[in-house]
Amino acid sequence: MSEENRYLVPGLARGLQLLTCFSRNEPQLTGAELARRLDLPRASVFRLLQTLEQTGYVERVPDSASYRLAIGVLRLGFEYLASMELTEMGRPIIEQLRTDTGYSAHLVVRDGQHVVFVSKAAGANAQFHSIQVGARLPAHATVLGRLLLSGLSMAELATLYPEEPLAQYTPRTPTTLAELKSLIDADRERGYAISQGGYETGITTVAAPVFNDRHEVVAAISITVPAQQIPAERTAILVPQVMQAAANLSQLLSHIPHVSGSAAPRKENV
Question: What is a biological process (GO) this protein takes part in (predicted)?
Answer without folding.
Answer: negative regulation of DNA-templated transcription
